[in-house]
Amino acid sequence: MEMLELIEPQVPDTTDRRVTDRRATDRLDFLPLNGTDYLELYVSNARQAAHYFQTAFGFQPLAYAGLETGLKDRESYVVVQDKIRLILTSPLHSHTEIGRHIDQHGDGVRVVALWVDDATDAFEQTTNRGAKPFMEPTRLEDDHGYVVRSGIHTYGDTVHVFVERSHYEGVFLPGFKAWSPHYKPNDVGLKYVDHMVGNVGWNEMNTWTKFYGEVMGFSQLVSFDDKDISTDYTALMSKVMSNGNGRIKFPINEPAEGKKKSQIEEYINFYEGAGIQHIAVATDNIIETVVTLRDRGVEFLRVPEAYYDDLKDRIGEIDEEIESLRPLGILVDRDEEGYLLQIFTKPVTPRPTLFFEIIQRKGAKSFGKGNFKALFEAIEREQELRGTL
Ligand code: FE2
């Protein structure tokens, strides 16, 4: 299937990220985004999930909202590691929107919040271009200043919340209080969200790449078709959408026909709809990070040993010793601009849906296309164990 058709660009094609004239890009960008503000996961036990992300992933306690702050229906813990903030939220009684989300999807990402300078303008720009409103611009304030938030729907039950926080100096958001328990395990060197991948249903990829192009002013970086990403059994198609300054990158996957069930289809079946498949977080030292994560109980997908035998021939010289990557299962890929190291966790939820990617970029701006085949064969071995292949 031909997947190289381009979406109608709203802005001149800025596919080449080496364009460095920021002012020129910003002038054309009707939705300037400063970065990822936070990700909110709806989970069945926020208190224990926060403990897991502290213990296993090295997040630090930051803020809390719940009964003690006057909320009646939910409890939220905010954990942070460098620029990455996660909110873990659970309902406090039955028949809530959060509970309904958990019932349908299991634990998963509800909100991908984006940091903006003007949340009212972000709402207007996107809803005028056809976005379905989720939250009208709403001002929240406390003694530390104010924050304006607004939001729109994206694929499945996932939403984008725009957060304007330049007039706020509190710990997180109005309504949250500082959470500073005795238990603070060390971080593991995670720095920022590199990209977040969405899985959508059959024939829906172009609908959503068009949405990010037309409604949010993103442009398409790359696409992969089922010839790039297929094994003997499963296939998928993928397009990567990026905002103007490249800080927000959303690859979108859809299943493709294979001999057996695609991993994307498995996700859609278990998540019962479209949603976030993985959150890629960056580190400056993937070997140290992965050693620590593994010691703390995070489980990773493994590729066969043979992957490393001809690695040097495939990717050329790299700074790291291949013999230190092999026992950890860290993968390497190269593009025209450099190389990257990456590894994927097993799902962190009971359903085989959400997982994390740990990535270290050494010049490369791509997403590890050269590893797809080895990786997907590893996923298929897991699917086989789950009886879902
Ligand atoms: Fe990724």
Write a brief caption for the model.
This protein has 389 residues and is α+β, with helices and mostly antiparallel strands.
Task: Write a concise keyword list for the protein shown above.
389 residues; 2,3-Dihydroxybiphenyl 1,2-Dioxygenase, domain 1; 2 domains; nine-stranded mixed sheet; eight-stranded mixed sheet; 17 strands; 24% helix; disordered N terminus
CATH superfamily of the largest domain: 2,3-Dihydroxybiphenyl 1,2-Dioxygenase, domain 1
What is the CATH C level class of the largest domain, in words? Alpha Beta
Strand content: 25-35%
CATH architecture identity of the largest domain: Roll
- Overall average residue pLDDT: 90
Tell me about the largest β-sheet.
Answer: 9 strands, mixed
Helix/strand/pairing class, anyone? alpha+beta
Order of helices and strands: HEHEEEHEHEEEEEHEEEHEHHHHEEEH
The DSSP helix count reads: 11
Shape: globular
N-end to C-end Cα span: 23 Å
Unreliable spans: 1-24
Bound molecules: fe (ii) ion
Radius of gyration: 20 Å
Number of strands: 17
Query: Approximately how much helix is present in the residues?
Result: 10-25%
Textual characterization of the structure:
It is a single chain. This protein is α+β, with helices and mostly antiparallel strands and 389 residues long. It has two domains: 35-178, 2,3-Dihydroxybiphenyl 1,2-Dioxygenase, domain 1 (Roll), CATH 3.10.180; 190-386, 2,3-Dihydroxybiphenyl 1,2-Dioxygenase, domain 1. The protein has helices spanning 22-28, 46-55, 97-105, 119-128, 205-215, 263-271, 286-295, 306-309, 311-315, 322-325, 372-386; strands spanning 35-42, 60-65, 74-81, 84-91, 108-116, 133-142, 145-153, 159-164, 177-178, 190-199, 219-224, 235-242, 249-256, 275-283, 331-335, 338-344, 355-362. It has a nine-stranded mixed β-sheet with strand order 6-7-8-5-1-4-3-2-9. An eight-stranded mixed β-sheet has the order 11-12-13-10-14-17-16-15, sandwiched between helices. The chain starts with 21 loop residues before the first helix and ends with a helix. The protein binds fe (ii) ion. Fe (ii) ion binds next to strand 10 and strand 14.
